[in-house]
Design a protein that fits this description.
Helix content: 25-40%
Number of strands: 0
Shape: elongated
Radius of gyration: 14 Å
Distance between the termini: 41 Å
Number of helices: 2
Length: about 80
């Protein structure tokens, strides 16, 4: 029997390569990213309760920005 660790936990962010869902939000981010790459930078705030995936979402967004050679940070 092969055991794998479930990457989805409210206690720990999910690695960007395991991030799933939030298609609408990722699409919105991609529009902001395109503007930023074209010289019109944007700022985003992601708000919500504990354990809903804010940090995982931000890490996925940062990963997408890096793929476009765009600087991104998580504060």
């Amino acid at each position: 029997m092969i055991s794998t660790k479930n990457p989805y936990s409210a206690e720990h962010p999910v690695p960007p390569d395991k991030f799933a869902g939030r298609i609408h939000q990722i699409g919105e981010f991609d529009l902001f990213l395109a503007d930023t790459v074209e010289g019109n930078p944007k700022n985003l705030a992601i708000l919500g309760g504990w354990g809903i995936g804010k940090t995982s979402h931000l890490r996925a967004v940062k990963h997408r920005a890096k793929e476009k050679n765009c600087a991104a940070t998580i504060l």
